[in-house]
Amino acid sequence: MNVYADNAATTKVSKAALDAMLPCFTETYGNASSPHHIGQEAAKLLIASRKTIADLIGAEPSEIIFTSGGSEADNQALVTAANLGAKKGKKHIISTKIEHHAILHTLNKLEREGFEVTYLDVYENGVVRLEDVEKAIRPDTALVTVMYANNEIGTIQPIKEIGALCKEKGVIFHTDAVQAAGHLPINVKEQNIDMLSLSAHKFHGPKGAGVFFVRRGIPISAIIEGGAQERGKRAGTENIPAIVGMAAAFQEACDNMAVNMPKVQALRDKLIGGLLKIEEVILNGDREKRLPGNVNVSVKGIEGESLLMMLDIQGICASSGSACTSGSLDPSHVLLAIGLIHEVAHGSLRLSLSEYNTEEEIDYILEKLPPIVERLRSMSPVWKRMKEVK
Amino acid sequence: MLYSEKVMDHFANPRNVGEIENADGVGEVGNAKCGDIMKIFLKIDDGIITDVKFNTFGCGAAIATSSMATEMIMGKSIDEALKLTNKAVAEALDGLPPVKMHCSVLAEEGVRMALLDYYTKRGEVMPEEYRPKCDGDCSECE
To answer: What ipTM was reported for this prediction?
Structure first.
């Protein structure tokens, strides 16, 4: 049996998205900037896609910039806010310790350019506290950027409340909604969001398309210079097939959210329940404030990559925050931020589900995992030491 | 990052997993902070390694290099085992991805650490050039 349980990494393109995309390659393949009819057909698709996505997040079409994905949108959001802040002498940014690297590495760059960044703690449950955000805001704060939901441990942050606080204090609020879009409701007005990033391939759209939402009135800084596409704020011929696929996938995800959320959540809860029955397995991240499809556990005494490889031999695709999967020697910054010690962080396993997963697949994972854990523990000096200590 | 078929074979079917009671030499290298710990047990009779077992906490490459290293020194003389290099282990596995080379270093050091224990237990001195150098800081191997 093959089980794809790595939907936080990327998802399968839905049939609706694929069907919407295919004609863009061979029929409406024009450049949306061309005045001839084939170009104009493409331009019409671009306008329709922009409207679809804007409507689904409570925004105006003019507030949507199409990007190559979530990382680019994150980069542009931070650079936009930083440039605005710098003009007013505001060079302080508030973020969290568990942001995606697209945020963290851009913040590091801004720090080198003279910005000061406050990285908020997330505590053991992986959730930011509103009072910490409030305490951190200063007169020179240019931006608060807090992700909607975490990509590793799935924790959902109090976005609406943080947004309201920022609105009251007159600080720009950005949220990286890459993991949330299509899975949790988004309304930029109700949630007081000034800037937002999302990525198509996390909700069964194609790779290579994303959205940077910017509330009207905020002057945008371009980070890719060139032609006048996206009102001069993002140069480069629009990736029409991917944008059309993104709009179709997002429409489908939002339309079916009320059905998919409880369905996926039930699968998640069954999986969490089953995993926690294994000796010395702990759940990472808040049990309740959690993405419908996210399961993240640490299996004490074993290393994540070997666990993933054993699961893969059984046809199960998952992910880990261990150093060995990151190409560095340090385990995930998110797992360290919630207070895990290195060896427990190395033993993390993320299983991220979607509406395409079935209960049979959950049963299969729960059948295959315990003997793998037992086998790896039987050859682990760390596990043997743990048992001796106990 | 791709693993060779040999790495996958030694990972999925590791040779010589286990412990040896009253081993003549035991060596442990690596640390849990880096995510790799290797423990090697040796049984040595008349200067020949007659049995070798390992326990490893670590990634696929760490398990595969442990398995390969133990296979390469089984039945060999102490002199031959001392000369086992991380490169030889990696080559025997048809190569390792660059980020995983430190796992092969761990295997070499694990064998030498077990041999150091053997020398020490006998009150003998291990030849200087083969003394393990690993201080457990995996970033040294980058």
So the answer is: 0.91
